[in-house]
Structures are given as structure tokens and as C-alpha cells.
Amino acid sequence: MGRKGWKGLAVGLGAVLFACQAPVSGTTPMADESVASLAKLKTAPAAKRHVAIGFSTLPSGAALRQLLAGLPVVITRLLPNAQVVVVTLDQPGDETVLAKLAKLPNVDYADWDGVGSILAGMPTTSAAGLVTGDPRAPEQWALSKIQAPAAWTLTQGSPETVIAIVDTGIDLDHPDLRAKLVGGTNIPAPQQTPKDDFGHGTHVAGIAAAVVGNGVGVAGVAPAARLMPVKVNVPGSGGLEESAVADGILWAAGHGADVINLSLGFSDGDSEFRTLGRAVHYALSRKCIVIAAMGNGFQTFGANHAQYPAAWSRKSSLSQIITVGATMPKDTRWPGADTGNWITLSAPGYSILSTAPTYTVPMTGMRDAALGADMRLNYGQLTGTSMAAPYVSGLAALLLHRESTHEPAVIKRKLEMSADRVGGADLGVGRINALATLKLR
């Protein structure tokens, strides 16, 4: 059994038993010409439909119903470990109701449910790398750059270590992933499996922990670690609701995740994202290692564009978050990666080959000259901080196997100490080095 008692599940020939066992419906294929650009795929949820109410102490069910009686709202989500209740308004955008909710007894805040997106990267062309017995590993330049093959002589991790991919789900039948999966969840549709219906989560998962040496596809950083699919996206899109992501983080932390990968973000806007902050704080209190991508907004917003939860790494109560930027093959910053003094370190994020769904999803066949798009069935290349974060999540999983402590602050410090000092401050302390990290004693 794992550190927090997760239940491992046998996976084979597409038969995966999850906590939510109802089958997911098939994804409708999309024609290539309908996928003109990634921006069109990042469908956001409708804003100002939901309100997250943060309590000092969560009322009992009866007390909560009495408290909300007479208000034009319906309870749609409970987050007990964050002391949060999410309600849907009869009239979206009703500021009067929002104000009334904020003034209820024992309420710390009432915020519009924040709107965000997975930090989907740009599909790119490939680069050269190493050989591991996985046919496409020579295209994985990043593994050699961070000295992963040398690190694997010390450890390939452990199946007792679980990496939660809080994202768009995972392809449950992918040959490079299916033997790695433990029970997951589908937050927006709890009766369905966390099958990836967009493509992003499967790509992220393979970077962190695809099987090594199986004669198929690619290699992940922590090949012996397990993967927990936590699906949080608006179905069929890259859009996110803050409360759903918070719920996913809380679920992962409560169901045995050792590492939580967050290749997603929420930008400055109407919401302060306090519900998301509470969820991350809870995960850290459970000794989960929380890895967050910096964001891909530099070319649109310029320097110091804050994406959350990444930007909270400078906040004392959330300083144990590990925030990750993206590097190019020559250890320069990928030009799209966000910058800011909250960055912890960086990892490869350009032209990253990884697993892709074996069935058609919105990202499949994405072809766009401006983005250099080329996402295909089974495997595909993407660029972005979304791809950099799971390199760090995989390395954290390797380190946890060799460490006697699981304290997030200790793991963060060791990753910082062992990073190669390359680039400037926009890369944080530098770019990760897996071998150097594992040699630290």
C-alpha cells in the first residue's frame, strides 16, 4: 500500500476499475479543418453563474439550508476540507445576491467561481535525444538534458509513489500509461470515468511517468511511479472552473496523491481565487508536493503576468508550491513562458514528445501554420510550461523514493539546490538536473 493508502488497480486490455465506474460516452471526432487553432479549443465556462462561499467553519447540512433559505441559489458543490460551498444563481451575474451571500454569518468571502484554462502548449516539431528501448525516445531531447537516464541507475521511482494529474483526464487504455493507473475521479461528471476528452492530460501524464523500456512509444521521468487521473475540465474543452479544480486538488490530496501536477492556471480577474488557494493549502498540509506551471502568457501580457496557483509561491502560507518555467534545448527561456519573481525553477518545455489519446479528441489532428501544429493519435509534440511542470513532478516522485521525509519544503529545497545554474532570473534558480537531485544526501 502507498503512503496514504491509495488502492492500486489492475489495468489491462482497456479494463480499468475506477472509483467512478460508469463508462464514459464516446468522443465525437472532429475534422482537421475544424481545429484551426488552440485558442479556439480553450473554451471557457460561462462566467458568473456560480459563487464560492468560504466559511470560517462549514455549517451542518440543515444549518446551511436554513442559512440559504429565501435566496435564489442552489447548492451545487460542497468542499468540506476547504470549508467552501458552491452555489448556482438563478440569475447569472446578480451582484445583489453576491453581496447578500458575503454578509451571511460565519462567511469569510463570497467570490464568483473563477474561470481558467489548462495551459495548453503549442504543437511543434521534434528534436534529437537518447535511446532507452522505447522507439520514440530518441526524439525526447529533454530526458538527456536533465540527465534522467543516469538518474535511473539510482532509482526509477516506486509504484508506492502516486502522481496526481489534475487536468483533462488520461487515456485509460494508452499502452504507455494503462499499467500505471490508480483510482481517479471525474469531478464535473462523477458517474463517469476520468477518460481524457481533450488531449492535454494524457500528454502531461506521459512526461511524468510513461513506462520505460517496454518497446513502445516514449519514456517518462518516473517510470515506476503511479498516475492518478483527476479530470477537472469543462467536458470536451480546456476550460476550467475554479471550484472544480479546487475539488480535484482536495480529492487527490485525500486519496493518496504524493505529488499533484497542476499544468493549468487562473489569471488576474474578478476573482481572488481564494477557494483554489484553500485547496492548495490543504494539499500542502497533507504533505503533498504541489507542482504548478508558470503559464504561457508572456508574448500576450509581457513580464510579471500572474497565473494562479503558480504566483502564490511568494505567499508565506503557500510558499511550498514549486512553480515551473519552460526552457529551450540550449537552456534559454521558452519565449512564451511567463516570468515573475515567484518562479522556483525551470524544466524543458519546448518540442516535448509525449503520449496522446489513442482516439480522436479536440486536440487530435490540430494543424495550424502559426503554431506549427502537429498533434496526432497515440503520440504528439507540445510546447509550454504545461510540459515543463510534469518533468518536475516526475523528478519529485523519484526523489520521494529516496527520501525519508515527505515534507514539501524539504523536497522543494533539494530541487532548488540541485538545479543547473543556467540562464537568468527568469528561469528561477535554474533548470532541473535529475541526477544531481538524487545524489543529494
Summarize the structure.
With 441 residues, this protein is α/β, with parallel strands linked by helices.
Question: What is the fold's blueprint, element by element?
Answer:
Blueprint: E1 11-12, E2 15-16, E3 50-55, H1 61-68, E4 73-79, E5 84-89, H2 95-102, E6 107-112, E7 115-118, H3 141-145, H4 148-151, E8 162-167, E9 185-186, H5 200-209, E10 226-231, E11 239-241, H6 242-254, E12 259-262, E13 264-267, H7 274-285, E14 289-293, H8 298-301, E15 307-308, E16 322-327, E17 345-348, E18 352-355, E19 379-382, H9 385-402, H10 408-418, H11 434-439
Parallel strand pairs: 8-10, 8-12, 9-10, 12-14, 14-16, 16-17
Antiparallel strand pairs: 1-2, 3-5, 3-6, 4-5, 7-11, 7-13, 13-15, 18-19
Helix pairs in contact: 5-9, 6-7
